[in-house]
What we know:
Helices cover 56% and strands 12% of the residues of chain A. Chain A contains 25 helices and 19 strands. Chain A has a six-stranded mixed β-sheet with strand order 7-11-12-3-13-14, with helices on both faces. A five-stranded antiparallel β-sheet of chain A has the order 2-1-4-5-6, with helices on one face. In chain A, a hairpin with a 4-residue loop joins strand 15 and strand 16.
Amino acid sequence: MAKIKTIKINGLRGVREPLTLDLDKKSILVYGDNGTGKSSVTDSFEWFFYDKIEHLSNEEIGRRKGRDALRNIFIPETEDSFIELTFDENKLDSKKSIDNSLKTFNSNETDDFKKFIASSFSERLILRYRDLVQFIIAGKTDKLKELQNIIGFSDVQNIRDLLKRNGARIARNIKSANYDNLKNVQQSTILENLGQNAYTDEQLFDGANKLIKPLKLGIEIKSRQDINTVLKKIESKEDSELLNQINFYTKVKESVAQIEGNVDNINNSYSTFYDSFNALKKDPEKVKNLQLLSLLQEGKSVLTKDVVENDYCPLCQQEKSKIDLLQDLNFRIEELELLNKEKEKVDNNSKDLQNTIKPNISAIEGLLTEKLFEKEDYKKLKETVEKIQNSLNNHLDESKKELTEKLSDKEEIKFVKKEIEELTSELVKTIKKLTESKEANLKFKTYTKLFQSAKAYVEYLKIEKEQSVLANQQATFELLYEDFIKRQEEALNVFLTMFSNDINDFYTTMNPNEKVEDIKLVPLKKNDELVGITIEYSFFNETHTPPIAYLSESHINCLGLSFFLASVRAFNKESKFFVLDDVISSFDRSHRYRFAQLLTTKFSDFQVILLTHEKEFFELVSSEVKSKGWILNNFKWTKDNGTGIERGIADIKDRIKKKIEDKNTDGLGNDIRVYAERVMKRVALEIEAKVAYRNNDINEKRMAPELLDAVQSKLTKASKELKEKADIPKIKGMPMFIGNTTSHDNSFQESIEDLEAIWEDVKGLIHNFYCSDCDKFLSLKFYDNVENKIRCGCGNLKFDWKK
Amino acid sequence: MINEKPTELKIFFDQPKTFELQNIKPLMGLAGLYFIFSEKTSIQYPILKSRLLYIGMSEKKTNSIGSRLTGHFDGKSKNLGLVNYRKREQLFFTHINFEMLRNFWSHRIEDLESYFILDFVEKYGVYPICNNKSGYEILNKKLKANFIIDWQYFD
């Protein structure tokens, strides 16, 4: 599993100048005030792995998965913005860049890297404060979706839904095609012509042979080819017009008979649609609420994507906790989704009705293109058929009506079966009459009957085959679906148990001795189908669900964090790291400390990138995490460079050495000043040299002259020996230590030789207060009460000291 | 009625289906007759042997062949004979959609069922074994029709 060695960011979000974090596979705690660009790191990180920045991917902030807002606005057009990550496994190192035209490039195009990035999609790499409680306050369906997303069950769920949808679609097709009706129309034709029905070739041939027997053709029909041979043999050109008429009427009869067999279905489908439509329409509130649903869903999206950052409602501008707002929205959406289901039911009923009618409409449309309908003799029949067509079209129009419209009454639109039956009966009579109009012409009569029955039989087989293919498909989908449900449930239950144990463990570690225990994720089922997941827990030995009703915000956050950490444990298979961006904002003091302990004890095998804007938290847990080998860092933001790191003393010292070595005077004077300030601040702290108190963070910003004065003043009172040795006035007279805050930004124009000399003096000063043997400063903590001396940790450095 | 004089019509049965829900489901919404028979057991009826156990009927689409067969399948129809036969061996069924005979039968479906049952009685000597009739009823096949039913299908 991969850990990060370095993160280098340039020109992304708030980072203008290159920002490098040398992690060397270690965890890091970063403090940075609001606006110092911690989130720029998280955003860049998110972009590197997921190729998008979720909270920037909306219309208001940016488009194209947040890329519009990705580049730092001050970065020159010619320069690429980038994030470069190196890992303990070099093969994964990559630099992802974005140029001015927002084209992106990845320096690593190996399969290993692509696989690594692909796997990160199912891992949990980033948690931001705004996402912390999403899962906890989400509705049961969203919880299921979310969990399925991260455990890779979404694909399973998608396949399951696909199976269900396909099974249902095929079932609807089978139902609306009314295959049995179609087959029986053909069997009826065979029965009429052969005096028997026929489901097999054998039965057809048997009937056909009986039919042709009186003609004494000397042919025995044993195949369908034989039927054609016989038909050819007895065909008469003279009777072709009559034959056309018979075929025409047969076609009309078959289409009308199909409708006749479908009339009950059409009427029933309309009735079902009508009832569900009017039931929904009866309550105007429901219709209004349905229109509200999309607004609420959009509101939820706006809040979850952090378009609104503070605790207020974006619509009414009133102050309101974002968590409360989201909770409220989730609740209302879930409520309205039931209503939406009712609407879906109406829509499905409408579709069913359309599916039932459409095959008949197509059949009639095809029929009306028959040439004979153009003749005056068939005008009446044409009108009758068109009347049926109109009636079918009326049903179709009704099925497409909006809820705001009124449906035609059932009785008003109802198909009268009797009328259709009479028409079929009339057509059968006509066909019979035409067939028998040449009673004496046995050949013609036989030809017609054999032709019609053979045609009907082929048609029957075609329909049978189509039905059987669809029925097999439907059965397969249903079997697969059932099996899926079973396996999905089994796997999910195993996972949920394991996952719940972790959540419970992490939560109780952060909240020991509290009465919330046995936290579980519990699947919810409806009609044997998994419809959601809820969180259950025991509170004073009583089972409760969901958690939001009883837990404080801090506890809900703890639960959210536990959920995320349990996800990290369960799903991070390739990446042994994760980013926590300002997740402890609403935690109280005890939770904060335990949270840090949780990370250092239970996630010591992971590399954690923990970003916070809370100074208090940073200070509270600094020693805890530092003792476990974490790196500590401060972020600052400047107008010129954007986000940067407030460098540690060792860093600055190395830089000074390098600049002197390179004879590079650029900024060297400033570096020496900053270094001296940092060290003197520490010296003042250790010898308890007093400076005037200032409010908040300004108290931290002490300039060198002030610190040097304070130390000098303390030495005057406490140690003549050290005062003489340190010779602070000599240092204080140096150019970089003269002036005030404003002069800090001035650059020094001294020669390298001058600066070398100054550096030597500063080092000399510091050596009076710092012991390189024990790596400790002179400190009153090590005061020797017997000898009355102040000393370092090992005692190699000591001076007289009057307390 | 189309056929004033009953013409002789030979009625064949559709392909047999195993008696299971998957095959029953597509018959929801159909009205007509259905026939349940055993795979191996031939019943010794007074005149001839047959594997036919039951002739049933659905008179309307709301109580369709599909729902009637489902009732027999899960035992809700309380036809103990069918339930017990199903326990012992694989059963089959076939059906006749009333739509096919609509132009040849102007009476009710109930009458068509009677016609078939009485024709069976005529050929085999008694009602099918699971039709729960004693067999003492007077044969009465007065309705006009000349169906030649392919009872051999069940031999």
